[in-house]
Structures are given as structure tokens and as C-alpha cells.
């Protein structure tokens, strides 16, 4: 089971690396008017999305495997897990939103400024902070 937990953590870290970097690419896309630069950034963003999506799936698969082994909902004191799972759902929605934003950039329909993307980029940071505290401290 330690291998399963280790792989879960590795895939979560890898997924978060993508979640941190992709919106930075969006910041740069929103700031440039140069067609060559946009094409290069769109290529980078597309490759990153295709790379990080399987990492997200694997993080969730190994997380569910860990969850099923330990039966985290059995008994009192597991409310922190409900909160963690809600945050994981938020991350999945965020990941899907990144796909939509990428498609908007690809189609020339971006409606947000680089400042908006800078704030958008902070969402996974806050979620990661909350998840680490929930899993480590188990406050409820």
C-alpha cells in the first residue's frame, strides 16, 4: 500500500506542476500580439494539457485506490476527507476550465486580461495549501 500512496503523491505533484504552469502560459498569451509567439505558446499549452491530463487521471486512480484500502468514510473523524474530496472536485473543474480557456485562445476568443490569468493561476495554490493542511492536520 505504501507504493500506491507514493504513486498517488507523485502523480498529484506532477499534476500540480501542470496546473501551476499552464495558467502562466495563458498570462503570456494574453500579453502578446505577436503571431509567432502566440503560435509557440499555444503549442506549449496544448502539449502541457495533453501531458498533465493523464497525470490527473492517475492521481485520482491512485487516490481512489488508497481511499478504498483505508475505507476513509468508516467511522467518525473523517470529515476532513469530505472537504479534501470537494477540493479535488474543484481541481477537476479547474482542469476542465483550462481546456475551455485553451480552446478560446486557439479560436481567438480570449476575453480575459493577463491580470485575470494571474489571479486564475492562484486557485491551485490555495487548493493545494488547503489539501495539505486537511490531510496533515485532519482538523475535523
Question: Can you walk through the features of this model?
Answer:
This protein has 140 residues and is mainly α. Helices cover 83% and strands 0% of the residues. It is built from five helices and no strands. It has helices at 2-31, 35-70, 79-106, 114-120, 123-137. The chain is elongated and about 55 Å long. The model has no long low-confidence stretch (mean pLDDT 95).
Span between N and C termini? Answer: 25 Å
Per DSSP, the total helix count is 5
Parts with pLDDT < 50 across at least 5 consecutive residues:
none
Query: Helix/strand/pairing class, anyone?
Result: mainly alpha
Q: Could you give the order of the helices and strands?
A: HHHHH
The level of helicity is over 70%
For the biggest sheet, the summary is: none
Quick overview:
The protein is mainly alpha-helical and 140 residues long. 83% of the residues lie in helices and 0% in strands.
Keywords:
140 residues; mainly alpha; 5 helices; elongated
Summarize the topology:
Elements: H1 2-31, H2 35-70, H3 79-106, H4 114-120, H5 123-137
Amino acid at each position: 500500500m505504501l507504493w500506491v500512496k507514493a504513486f498517488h503523491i507523485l502523480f498529484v505533484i506532477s499534476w500540480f506542476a501542470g496546473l501551476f504552469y499552464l495558467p502562466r502560459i495563458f498570462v503570456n498569451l494574453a500579453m502578446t500580439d505577436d503571431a509567432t509567439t502566440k503560435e509557440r505558446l499555444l503549442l506549449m499549452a496544448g502539449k502541457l494539457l495533453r501531458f498533465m491530463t493523464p497525470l490527473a487521471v492517475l492521481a485520482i486512480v491512485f487516490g481512489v485506490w488508497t481511499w478504498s484500502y483505508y475505507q476513509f468514510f468508516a467511522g467518525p473523524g473523517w470529515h476532513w476527507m469530505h472537504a479534501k474530496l470537494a477540493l479535488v472536485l474543484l481541481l477537476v473543474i479547474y482542469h476542465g476550465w483550462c481546456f475551455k480557456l485553451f480552446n478560446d485562445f486557439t479560436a481567438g476568443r480570449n476575453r480575459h486580461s493577463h491580470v485575470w490569468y494571474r489571479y486564475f493561476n492562484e486557485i491551485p495554490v490555495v487548493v493545494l495549501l488547503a489539501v495539505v493542511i486537511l490531510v496533515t492536520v485532519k482538523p475535523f
